Every structure is written in C-alpha cells, then in structure tokens.
Amino acid sequence: MKKAVISGRNLSLGYQKGDRKREVLHGLNFDLYTGQLTCLLGSNGVGKTTLVKAIMGRIPVWNGKLLVEGKELSALNSKELSKTLAVVLTEPIVAGNMTVGQLVSLGRTPYLNWSGYLSAHDKQVVEEALISTQILEIKDERLSEISDGQRQKAMIARALAQDAPIMILDEPTAHLDLVNRFEIMQLLHSISQSQNKSILVITHDLDIALETSDQLWIMKKKEKLIAGLTEDLIVKGLIDSLFSKEKIHFNSKRGKVELENKLAKLDFEGDEYLAFWIQKALGKANIYDVKSPVKIHENPFFIHYEGLEFSSIQEFVAFLFLGE
Amino acid sequence: MKISRNGILLAGAFIVLIFSLLLNVSLGSVSIPMPTILEGLFSGSWDKNSYEQIILNYRFPKALVAILAGVGLSISGLQMQTFFRNPLAGPYVLGISSGAGFGVAILILAGSIFGFASNAMNPWAVAVAGTMGAGLILVLVSLVAWRVKDSMTLLIVGIMFGAAVSSIISVLAYFSGAEALKLYTIWSMGSLGGLGWAQVTLLSVVILLGLIPVIFSIRAFNASLLGESYAASMGISPLKLRWLMIISTGLMSGAVTAFCGPIAFVGIAVPHVARIIWKTADHRILFPASALCGSVLLLLCDAIGQLPGSAQSLPINAVTSLIGAPIVIGLVLKRNFSKEF
After folding, report:
1. What would you measure as the largest C-alpha separation in chain B, in angstroms?
2. pLDDT tens-digit profile of B257-275?
3. CA–CA min distance A16, chain B (Å)
4. Which pLDDT score is estimated for A166?
5. Which residues contact A310 (CB under 8 A, 6 or more apart)?
6. How far is B236 from chain A (nearest CA, A)?
7. Judging by DSSP bridges, how do beta strands A308-310 and A302-305 pair with one another?
8. Which residue of A145, B98, B180, B225 is most buried, as measured by CB atoms within 10 A?
C-alpha cells in the first residue's frame, strides 16, 4: 500500500486583507502518495496556486487540517519543510550567468552552513540529480545559453538535489514543445517510481497528464476536489467535469479533448477512420449534408463521388463547397 | 590540484590593487619618486621631512579611504542588486545618500539661513551630520521594511524617501547664501581626502562591522538569485536577509557617504564589472571580487583626479563617472549585459 505524505482534511484556504476575508478553497480532501505522479488539473482561477502556496507554508490554513507525513504543516519550521518539500515554480530565473551545475548545487542550500561550502556528499547528490535528469553533459553551460526544455530539466534537477521526499511543480511544461512536454512528464513519472518520491504536477496539458500520471486531482470552482486513479476517472466519465462549456468535451474512447462539432451525415463505403477525418474536414467547412454515397479507397488514397475521383480531402471539400 | 580560474583572477586583482595603491600614493601635486616612498615605508627614514608628512598624513590616509569606500560601496551595491534582483539597484536605492545629504544640508545650508553655522566644513561636524541624516532615513525605511511584505515595495519606498528628502534639500538650497551653497555643492561632489587618521580608523571599523552580516549571508544571497519564493522553499528567510542587508549597507554606504560625500557610480557599476570578469553568479566569488574591483577603481580614479604634476585636483565624482562610464559601456556592449546578471 502506498503511503500518503500530504493529506488535506476538510481544508479551507483563502486570503485576508484587513477585515475582508475571501475564501478560495473550501472543504478539500486529498492524499498525495509516495512513488506516484499526481497531476492537478483545473481551469484558471480555481485555486490551484493557492493550494500549492498553502502546502509550501506561505499562507496559513483557515480551517481543517493540512498534514505532511502525519504532522500538521504549521508545526514544521522552514528548515524542516525545505528538507521535506522541493518546488519548481513558474517564476522566471534572471541569473543567466549561473551554470547548470551551480543552479543544481543551490538545491543543497538547506544542508549547507553559512559559507555555502559543498561537501563530497553534497557534490555526489548534485551529480546524481544531473544524471537522472540527463543533463550531466551541459553541467558547465550557462542558463542563458540553453534551451527552455533543458532549463526546465535543470530546475527539476535542482529540486531533486534538495533531496526531499515530496516535489511540487507548477506548470513545468508551459512554453515547451510537444516532444519536450512528453519528455519532462515521462521523466517525472520515472523519477517518482525509481526514487519513490511523491510528485504533484499542476498542468493544463490534459492529454499528457492522462498519458503519464498515476493519480489525477480535478479542481472545480465551488466544488469538491475529485481525486482518483487516472483511468478510474476516465472510465467514470469524470474528466468531462473539467469543461463547463458545452462545446468542448472529453472523448473517453480516443482519450482526448474534442470540440463538439456537428458531423456531416456521410453514407460511405470504406475505412471508418478515414471517413472520420473526412467528416471532420466537412464539419469545419460547415458542410453537413452529402447527398450521394462516398466510396473511400485507402491505398492509394482517393475519394469516389458521383462518378468523380478526388486524390485529397481538400479537393473533395472544395468540390462540395462550390456545389452548394 | 587544480587551481581555479576564479582563484587566479582574485590573486591577479589583488596584485593590481597593490600596484594601484603604490601608484596612487606616488602621484600628486608634489612629485615623490617611487623608490623614495618604498624606502621610507619600509625603513621608516625619509629623505625629507615634508615627504613623510605628505605620504603618511595625507596620501596614505586618502588611499586607505579610497579602498574602504570602494569596498563599502561595491559590496553594498552587490547586496542590493541581488536582493532586489534589479541590475540598476545600488547602495543608494534605500535613500541613504539622500539622508546623509539631508544631514549635511541641515548643517551647511540651514546653518547659513538660521545663522548657527560655525566652521561648517570641519570633517567631524560633516560626518556627524551625514551619519545622523543617513541614520534617520534608515530608521524610517526600516519601519516600512518591517511592515511591507515584498522587496519591490521596499525598493519603491526607498526611492520615494530619497526623492522627498532631495526636495527638502532643494528648498534649503533655494533660500541659502552663495557661500553655503558652494560648500554644499563641493561636499556633494565627493572627496576622499581631508580625513585624519582618527577618522580613517573609525571608517575602517564601521566598514569591518558592515562586512560581518555579509559573511553570514553568502548562502542566502546565492539562494536569493532564484527569487524570494525559491529562497524560502530552500529554508532561507527573506525577512532575515532583508534585515542583515539593511544593517550592512546602512553601516557601510552610510559611513562612506558621511565621510566622503555621495560617491556616484561605483556601487552600481562595480558588481557588473566583477560579474563580467569572473563570469559567475556565486557570491563567494562576487563579494571579494567586487571589493577588489571597487578599491582599484577608486584608487585609479583618485590618482587621475590628482591631475599629477599640477596643483589642481578634480572632484572624485567627476572622475569616477567620466572614466568609469565609458569602461562599463564598453564591457556591457561587448558582452550581453542582460544575460550576465
């Protein structure tokens, strides 16, 4: 059985300015487990960052309990907390003069004395962090000279060097290209398993979160936090609760988010998946009625329609468009 | 064992500092040959009594003041730049120089208006007035620092205090006589000379006191390079660092300004020069590097300001800005400035 390292019990959080109190989150219940990658999903403004701030100890708990390894979070001092929890934030790093190695070494800060001298053990931990994030070879390069994906890996390595059982990352894949997004999330997933860490990732990349996370937390405004095994939530149809707008929905068969476009009625003969993409293209062109049957030939691809042949979907759509 | 590039550069900078010191001491309106100076310093016997007077009681204290001011201002500037994560921050952003200026303005300008000025350019009187002014502003800024949460607010408040105090000085200047105005203007141009051994000793003690908090916050400054949130997540207290920084820069730049006047440019520029030369963001290197660069810069600027061979000399502020600005512009254009921070 996996152990819960962070738990919320009927947790309420918010901000206070003078006498005015604004409650952002109410009655949250959750558990973050060791050795698992958990993704926190929710639209902008539901309070994801507020929850992270509370877990980082930067804002007080209003009501309920926030437990870290069984103890009240507020009972930990900043030094103990820094050895329990490491973070990767959205804040940009301005120190371009720093090398990747120096950045990762900063992760050792909680263990150092005032002079910042790194012991042999500290250096070894830093090297291991560089190796497990696959950036050892760019150790001496400056932060201003590496790519965004590499910089994000360096930030993850810094958090690893902090040697804390819990890691929280706030949108680590923002600004990255698709390949890097998958790579970063895959990396986090493998770290959570190989180093038995609890990793919580706040993200807006639903597709990648579904692909890589063990647990999913879904936050909605003024509603309870939905938590569970990723696949359980898919099967129960709970992913759809992320979308309040009716036009967008989650297709649990395809595992992806779709615009609910009306699809053209198509009387076809041929491969179903090819017909699907033809329907999609027709839907974008606002063509919903195809009078005659369509024959789709797969290899080589062509469309047979009313005695004519089209070698691409574009030609077919253009023909129908002119015909109307 | 591998000797690091940073170590070699620091040793090199130290040698440059020794040469700058000797050069500074040997130049002046009276030309004294270098061998004579070295012989006098090491054996204690001088060819002429006047040489001993000039070297030991005028040029040497002045060179020491240049070094102390260089150390104090550069290290204050570096702390401010890292803490506020702002490349344009300097030792004076918290209003310390305006505060010292305010104290001196009260002494000289208000003194002339209300008729209590006597012997206004006595260095002790000026230093006491400057210290009191800088201390007053520091107390006010600290009261605010106690209340505000983020460092950017503190920065803005510091600048606003400076602006408010400057306007009071302008009012005083408007109503004061030509004589007092000139005295004040000369003070505001900065001066490394004119201090006796007693004052130099006091300045050294204050600078050393100001360096103590710096030594104990090297780790915290390094972590602060990533911003307050990251620093806090690594167990660093930004609030504690803020107080150490206010005490340290208050002592160092406050004392320098009280004794030498507001010396422009050094505190902002030198940390950048150190970053560019040493190519590092590590404060274990940057603090000593900035101190060395600042000392060398002020010694050389002072040497140039002597206008060697002539009886005239230029105010130190004119020289630091005139010589230093092109150097920094050159360095900055050669390397990409924003990436070096």
Report:
1. 68
2. 888 988 878 888 899 889 8
3. 14
4. 94
5. A302, A303, A316, A319
6. 8
7. antiparallel
8. B98
Q: What is the number of alpha carbons within 13 Å of residue B10 lying toward its C-beta? A: 14
pLDDT, tens only, A184-230: 999 999 999 999 999 999 998 888 898 899 999 998 887 888 888 98
Residues of chain B contacting A140 with CB distance shorter than 8 Å: none
Judge whether B183 and B105 are in contact, CB under 8 Å. no
Of B56, B49, B38, B69, residue with least CA distance to B191: B69
- Which residues span the domain enclosing B290? 5-340
Please answer yes or no on whether A112 and B219 come within 8 Å at the CB atom.
Answer: yes
Mean of all residue pLDDT scores within chain A = 87
B274 touches chain A (CB under 8 A): no
Q: Which amino acid is at A279?
A: Q
| DSSP summary character for residue A92 | P
Structure tokens at A266: 């198509």
Separation CA A195–CA A35 (nearest Å)? 7
Across A97-106, B144-153, B315-324, the highest mean pLDDT is recorded for A97-106
Instruction: Give B179 or A9, the one with higher predicted confidence.
Output: A9
Query: Considering only the top CATH level, what class is A4-251?
Result: alpha beta
| Helix residue ranges, H only, A213-271 | 230-235
- Which domain CATH number covers B93? 1.10.3470.10
Q: What total of structural domains would you count in chain B?
A: 1
Give the start-to-end residue ranges of the domains of chain A: 4-251, 268-323
pLDDT in tens, A270-319: 888 888 888 888 888 888 888 888 888 888 888 988 888 898 999 998 88
User: What are the CA-CA distances from residue B17 to residues A295, B13, B76, B190 (Å)?
Assistant: 87, 6, 19, 22
Contacts 24+ apart (CB under 8 A), B299-303: B299/B17, B299/B20, B299/B21, B299/B23, B299/B24, B299/B63, B299/B66, B299/B67, B299/B70, B300/B20, B300/B23, B300/B24, B302/B24, B302/B62, B302/B63, B302/B66, B302/B192, B303/B20, B303/B23, B303/B24, B303/B27
- Helix B283-305 and helix B266-278, axial crossing angle in degrees, nearest 10: 120
Interface test with B, best of A102, A106, A140, A144 (most B CBs within 10 A): A106
> Which residue among A82, A89, A144 sits closest to B339, beta carbon to beta carbon?
A144
C-alpha distances in Å from residue A319, one per residue of A65, A315, A322, B81, B151: 64, 6, 5, 65, 64
Give B120's pLDDT tier (boundaries 50, 70, 90): low
pLDDT of amino acid B1: 43
- Structure confidence at residue A130 as a pLDDT band (50, 70, 90): very high
